[in-house]
Design the sequence.
């Protein structure tokens, strides 16, 4: 008896189970490939920048924007016992994404063997993987971006991940982030304009932005930019001063170095735009049970097909915007 009975015989349950189990076996491959899919995703999921969590619709992130009062004293001076101020949570709503895996009954009846079914499902999973990568990378970068003069001024789509330009806003940006008003100066990111548009100006502005984002050894560890800005920086380097990040190279990404900071370009970055990121304060939270998880296959109600869904739930968060920087060219 064939695995698939086109007339709707007793093997339908076994077929659904086979599809579901096979899709579950692809899960780790999906997670791994998604983690390395783009420069930003690779950077976010390496060295502990991706963190799993469980439970809850919202994610609360403690903010370290103040300091405990350090008191010099002697003898029997009264010692301060007031709790430290400056630690308050920023609140983020977890975002959810799904891609349906749909197999028509025509395909079932055309691919009766088990190996053919698995090959068909593998192709569907690859298609879903590409869709996830492209959609979520755009959102991680561009949600809230509205062009040079108004970077970070348009409200982001509340259903999508909060992107880089949600917490790294242009100097004219006024949107709150994490439930905290942008009018709080301690909560604003650093900004520079490179309106001259030449390599010498780029290097000068990068130096200023880097120092503005740094406090001692606490400095940006990634520069992410568009391809044109990357090429402009590379043109300013002499051959014997061109260093690369070997880990990025091993992952298949073109890279350069600025001081001890890796420079990568991402095709989803807006033109003439550069960000400096400090990963100590940026986390990609992913729900442990909804990290490329799939639902069981079942019959579609209004189609001659059966389907499953690949699901992802999480959020991109920043706990210290003052350590992040944005450079744009608006003229």
Sequence:
């Amino acid at each position: 008896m064939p695995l698939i009975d086109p007339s709707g015989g007793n093997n339908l349950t076994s077929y659904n189970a086979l599809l579901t189990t096979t899709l579950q076996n692809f899960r780790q491959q999906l997670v791994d490939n998604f983690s390395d899919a783009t420069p930003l995703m690779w950077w976010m999921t390496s060295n502990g920048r991706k963190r799993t969590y469980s439970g809850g619709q919202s994610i609360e992130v403690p903010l370290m924007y103040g300091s405990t009062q350090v008191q010099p004293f002697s003898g029997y001076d009264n010692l301060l016992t007031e709790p430290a101020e400056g630690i308050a949570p920023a609140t983020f709503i977890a975002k959810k994404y799904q891609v349906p895996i749909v197999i028509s009954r025509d395909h079932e009846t055309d691919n009766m063997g088990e190996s053919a079914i698995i090959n068909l499902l593998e192709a569907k999973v690859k298609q879903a993987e590409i869709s996830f990568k492209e959609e979520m990378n755009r959102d991680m970068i561009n949600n809230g971006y509205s062009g040079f003069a108004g970077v970070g001024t348009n409200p982001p789509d509340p259903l999508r991940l909060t992107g880089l330009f949600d917490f790294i806003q242009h100097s004219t940006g006024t949107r709150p982030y994490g439930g905290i008003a942008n009018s709080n100066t301690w909560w604003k990111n650093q900004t520079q304009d490179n309106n001259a548009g030449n390599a010498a100006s780029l290097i000068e502005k990068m130096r200023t932005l880097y120092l503005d984002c740094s406090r001692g050894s606490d400095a940006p560890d990634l520069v992410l930019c568009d391809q044109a800005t990357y090429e402009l920086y590379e043109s300013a380097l002499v051959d014997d001063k061109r260093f690369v990040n070997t880990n990025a190279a091993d992952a298949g990404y073109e890279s350069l170095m600025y001081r001890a900071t890796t420079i990568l370009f991402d095709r989803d970055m807006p033109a003439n735009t550069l960000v400096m990121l400090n990963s100590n304060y940026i986390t990609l939270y992913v729900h442990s049970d909804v990290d490329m998880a799939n639902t069981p296959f079942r019959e579609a109600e209004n189609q001659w097909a059966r389907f499953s869904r690949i699901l992802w739930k999480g959020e991109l968060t920043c706990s210290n915007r003052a350590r992040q920087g944005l450079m744009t060219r608006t003229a």
Notes: DSSP finds nine helices and 13 strands in the chain. The longest strand covers residues 305-318.
